[in-house]
């Protein structure tokens, strides 16, 4: 597979097998992630990797908090107006369609939120916090470069990963469980393991918009998007 095929084949499965993966592989993947670029080489990623019974206990704490008090994120979940919430709604419609969950079936949709909180059955998750640095935008960007390295390294090693912003919607519960300082804000979880290829949501294939919708070209001849 060439690099373009490789990178375009990465995808987010939302179902995992419970199988453990070798600790050496996890270490290699962490080293690959760590090689990401960052603003002034600040490397502002602060990552807690959890597996085994610890992850199950965290999942139970998250579900209890969600069922009792609801969500409590560090950062707002606001996609603004126009194309961005539209794309998000298209993804949700596709995903719920694949699961056979109707739009008006609130209980089934809530159960799928709980499935997120069960880490989709995966044996590992990396919880990604950013430190107090100004308005945190630069740290959040750097966390993103780290996360993409992580995802691509998982793919290269034959595993899968899915970022889970959903976990960050219960940030105080995660911090309390892990003993993390309140100043460290949770951006996302990156949940990983071997994917369950038999699941209807193994590959959602949400597609991407045309380049012309996201890229504007200045002064380059022949690059018609
Ligand atoms: C920061 C971030 C947070 C995400 N949070 C969730 C999540 O909570 N639950 C989920 O099922 N997918 C989540 N995703 C996965 C996206 O929905 C997915 O990347 C997007 O639809 C494109 O699909 P693909 O990864 O299969 O190419 C998240 C992705 C990112 C980058």
TrEMBL record:
Residue span, Nitroreductase domain: 7-194
GO molecular function: oxidoreductase activity
UniProt organism field: Corynebacterium macclintockiae
Keywords: Flavoprotein, FMN, Oxidoreductase
InterPro entries, sorted: Nitroreductase, Nitroreductase-like
Pfam families the UniProt entry points to: Nitroreductase
Name of the protein described by the UniProt record: Nitroreductase
Keyword Oxidoreductase: yes
Homology family: Belongs to the nitroreductase family.
Cofactor(s) this protein cannot do without: FMN
Family matches, as PANTHER family: NAD(P)H NITROREDUCTASE YDGI-RELATED (PTHR43673), NITROREDUCTASE (PTHR43673:SF2)
């Amino acid at each position: 597979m060439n690099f373009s095929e490789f990178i375009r084949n990465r995808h987010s499965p939302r179902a995992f097998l419970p199988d453990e993966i070798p600790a050496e592989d996890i270490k290699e993947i962490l080293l690959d992630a760590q090689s990401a670029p960052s603003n002034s080489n600040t490397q502002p990623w602060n990552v807690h990797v959890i597996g085994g019974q610890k992850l199950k206990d965290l999942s139970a704490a998250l579900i209890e908090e969600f069922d009792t008090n609801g969500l409590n994120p560090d950062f707002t979940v606001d996609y603004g107006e126009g194309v961005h919430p539209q794309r998000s709604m298209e993804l949700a419609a596709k995903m719920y369609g694949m699961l056979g969950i109707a739009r008006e079936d609130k209980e089934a949709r809530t159960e799928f939120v709980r499935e997120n909180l069960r880490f989709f059955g995966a044996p590992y998750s990396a919880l990604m916090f950013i430190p107090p640095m100004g308005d945190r935008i630069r740290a959040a960007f750097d966390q993103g470069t780290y996360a993409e390295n992580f995802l691509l390294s998982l793919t290269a090693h034959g595993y899968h990963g899915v970022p889970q912003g959903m976990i960050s919607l219960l940030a105080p519960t995660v911090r309390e469980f892990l003993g993390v300082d309140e100043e460290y804000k949770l951006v996302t979880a990156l949940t990983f393991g071997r994917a369950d290829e038999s699941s209807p949501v193994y590959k959602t294939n949400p597609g991407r918009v045309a380049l012309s919708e996201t890229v504007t070209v200045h002064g380059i001849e022949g690059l018609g998007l």
